Amino acid sequence: MGIWKIRGGNRLYGDTYIQGAKNAVLPILSGTLVSGCVTKLTNVPRLRDVDNTLKILSCLGCQVEWTGHTVTVDSRNAGFAPIPRELMTQMRSSVLFLGAMLARFGRAEVSMPGGCMLGPRPVDLHLKALEDLGAQLELTDETITCYASRLQGERIVFPTPSVGATENAMLAACGAWGVTVIENAAREPEIEDLQTFLNAMGADISGAGTDVVVIRGMRPISYAEHAIVPDRIAAATVLCAAAACGGDVTARALVPEHILPITDALERMGCQVTKGKDSIRLVSDGVLTAPGVIETLPYPGFPTDAQPLLLAACMKASGETTFLETIFSGRLRHTRQLQRLGGNIQVDDHKAVVTGVPRLTGTTVQATDLRGGAALVIAGLMAEGETILVDRDHITRGYERLDACLRALGADVIDTD
Ligand code: EPZ
User: What is residue 117's predicted lDDT score, i.e. its pLDDT?
Assistant: First the structure.
């Protein structure tokens, strides 16, 4: 459950360091299973989803150690076992164990994954890719079982880009004979990070970050190290909060090129954005102008994960902002809670039109998903009075101490636990 008490009105000042990417470390942790070796991961964010993934690896016989922001996984003695349902259903990324287990064991048995309720989240593209590589599937309402006496490299063509399906195909293809070519692959930076990690483990993968990824198999090595790429959505969260509250914030240890659509929008809203090699400084007087039409698209377009964050920052911006959510059909649910704070948001199917209002007023709101919860925090920081945010556990799945991070910048956010 967990409750945060937020008092709006403070400006934000100072420096903050961005965590490692949740959506990079989770597929990479599945990847530690692909061959028997010892891997050391640094810049690992302290998240519940990471903890759950390490529990899954332990169930499969891996030795795991997590100290600070460093995780070591020894998968040399891993062995097949069905993954417990209570772990699988905690998050979406657990579905990536299908590809990793097929590559390592030639079989996999998982239940349907969990994850944020953003509308239907099918896994048909994942399963088609694994079948293309020669896996036989058995499905029930609750479970997915795969067998592959031998995975065979193949040409996989996705009808639409899918981050998870691209990652699952890459993981499985590491255990396939011959060359696999993935066409219409998703291009997110987290996929490039997975390629870098798997190649450090002895894979031969190229093209990640483009729409064609080629996997030429794997010559496993005994030890690999990898630093997780910075979390571009965590960076977007802090910058949207600074824009909305006003102030002068420098986000460090990030890749500015990974969030260009967000910084472009914040500049259109009147913020002064200065990009360094691995930092972004944002100065805002808190008086913002609507940025125009924001359409979410696969990378390098505007990321769906940042839509709730920028939408919150637009709630007091002068003028009208139209958000077109093209990735997830249920990703405007958070607007109902934002309306409770006084936001003028008209939602019609996948479109939300935000008209700036002069003030928001604190009240009790409920987080319904990870990024929707973060959006409520941003809105609470803009509102007059106190906002009580219920179900902050959605937020702690993907942010390492977002409350403490914002408090260090001057925000009045208290975790009541
Ligand atoms: C990943 O989810 C991220 N999660 C999401 O971040 C992110 O919003 C999404 O990619 C962006 O595309 C992780 O990496 C753990 P998709 P994923 O497959 O892989 C449809 C967050 O807040 N689709 O790229 O599940 C799907 O319904 C989370 O950090 C199928 O139809 O997303 C969606 O409409 C939320 N069939 C579209 O593709 C499939 O088999 C893109 O989904 C798979 C997906």
Answer: 79
Work out the average pLDDT over 101-111: 94
What CA–CA distance (Å, rounded) separates 397 from 403?
Answer: 13
What does pTM read for this prediction? 0.97
Superfamily of domain 22-227: Enolpyruvate transferase domain (3.65.10.10)
> Which ligand 1 atom is at minimum distance from the Cα of 369?
22
d(CA 411, CA 141): 45
For the chain, percent of residues with pLDDT exceeding 90: 89
By residue count, the chain amounts to: 417
Look up 116 and say whether it is catalytic.
Answer: yes
Active-site residue, from 37, 59, 62, 116: 116
Backbone angles phi, psi at 362, to 5 degrees: -60, 145
Q: Which atom from ligand 1 is nearest to the alpha carbon of 91?
A: 15
Delimit the domains of the chain by residue range: 2-18+230-415, 22-227
The verdict on the CB of residue 371 being under 6 Å from ligand 1 is yes
Asked if residue 52 has its Cβ within 6 Å of ligand 1, the reply is no
- The domains spanning 2-18+230-415 and 22-227 adopt the same CATH topology: yes
> Which CATH homologous superfamily contains domain 2-18+230-415?
Enolpyruvate transferase domain (3.65.10.10)
pLDDT digit string, tens, across residues 260-313:
999 999 999 999 999 999 999 999 999 999 999 999 999 999 999 999 999 999
